[in-house]
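Lay summary. Proteins are chains of building blocks that fold into shapes, and those shapes determine what they do. In this project we predict the shape from the chain. Here is one chain we studied, written as its sequence of building blocks.
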Amino acid sequence: HLCDDHVGRKANNNLCLTCYWNNCNYTKKKRDHVTSHIRKHIEFKPHICQTCYRAFKRPQDLKKHLAIH
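And here is the predicted shape, written in a compact code that computers can read:
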């Protein structure tokens, strides 16, 4: 260790992460849950259906969509 105290979320027992986009205040303990949530606020849609070329923000949304083909 480079210092005597840990710094960050675990050091102060604040294990929650919060989305502050336009005062959203969505809070979860897992970083990937918050990251996935933040994609709801932006227009980035990297997950594309290879059948109809519809685009989705989250991989789970594409997976649900693929069930209709």
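What the prediction tells us: Residues 44 and 61 are 13 Å apart (CA to CA).
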